[in-house]
Fold:
Amino acid sequence: MTDPESLEGWVPEIGTRVSLEEVIDRAFDYRGNVTVVRADGSELEGYVFNRNRDVRVPFIQVFDRAGDGPYDILYSDIRAIRFTGKDTAAGGSYAAWLRAKQASKQRPGTTPAPGA
Amino acid sequence: MSVPLSQMWAVASYVVTQRLAGRTRYPLVLMLEPLFRCNLACAGCGKIQYPAQILRKHLTVEQCLSAVDECGAPIVSIPGGEPLMYPEIGRLVKELVARKKYVYLCTNALLLTAKLEDGVFEPSKYLSFSIHMDGLRDEHDEAVCRDGVYDEAVAAIREALRRGFRVTTNTTLFDGANPLRVREFFDAMMDLGVEGMMVSPGYSYAKAPDQEHFLRRRRAHELFTQILSGPKRRWKFNQSPLFLQFLMGKRDFECTPWGNPTYNMFGWQRPCYLLQEGYAATFQELMETTQWEHYGRKSGNEKCRDCMVHCGYEPTAVNHTFASWRGFRDTVAATVTGRF
Ligand code: SF4
Ligand code: SF4
Structure:
């Protein structure tokens, strides 16, 4: 089940309708991997676990897909962010469990799996 | 209150020392999250939704200990994720006990019996297993989204008590909780012989799967008044009676977000255990650069409006106890009479 409000798959165009700061805030709040495109065109896919915009030189911090890092990237070095990874906080795992539970009540002896 | 005297004394002398030193912001409980992995996926939990590479990672024992030393709080609570899935949990606890830290190991207990049988832990006055129990069998199994967990947790509690460990329970309540059933649950936990219980309303984590059942403030007051009015003498709570009065709406406290600072693989979490507004590299940076005035109920911050969670308000209650004779007197009175 996909959450219609999830940002999964979002490829924002920075500068037209959303600012870089806004996209970074969304990426920081996103519980999935994203792909960060640097000014030189290189890309880093991983989890943005921190952003600090209250310092003289704002930056984000990323653990890459292998879990290595943290890699620090300055705001000024970010050209784009794509929401490429699965949103782990989306989807109705609880709703699905409730449905499975309801069904199991009608079929005694079955137990819904966690997060089913 | 059921906190052992030695622990009460350690906390009291720590608070008095901080106050005498003129410190207005100091930590009481370090929330140490060595990992985010868990063997459950509870409906109200916003702690475990991460990509696979993050769930595979964990802190080293050395990183944990250096955070403990940096922070200096007398109590270390180890939540998670599920800390019993942390490969070095035995060594970590041993090191913390050696440092005379009072450790609350917060676990869903699914792995506890096996760990006890493997001799991973030794009983100590410094170590308490804090077992996640959200109610009697039906309520708990529903909260953790798996049948049979209540029975496994009860068996683990019995085994831990039999082996001489300190055991407490921690219970998160959501809207729709039945006060009578919660009172029966308190009886059941006391029958089991746990040292004390902790209760708190749940927090409305934006990432939690169930978004419908978080308690708003007024409703929380009503619910806790129904649960805690006329408390039975045999009920023992491992938390400040002033915090329980706050839950009932008898006291108005402001949040103390720095009271329970949180450390995990991302660093020192701003501003509290519940919100993730960023991370500081050091404890000092957390304390000095977090804009504390943006948090707590009076700040008007939407995310804090309905929060009454123990990690923000229990430190306020403890500080209140030692800030004035009145606070001290009220705490003693509630402790001695068993009434809130
Ligand atoms: S509430 Fe605790 S036991 Fe439940 S999923 Fe979260 S970390 Fe695991
Ligand atoms: S009120 Fe709650 S959410 Fe807000 S800072 Fe305090 S503990 Fe955190």
User: Anything to note?
Assistant: The mean pLDDT of chain B is 94. The pocket of iron/sulfur cluster (ligand 2) is lined by residues B 255, 257, 271-272, 274-275, 295-296, 303-304, 307, 309, 311-312 (CB under 6 Å).
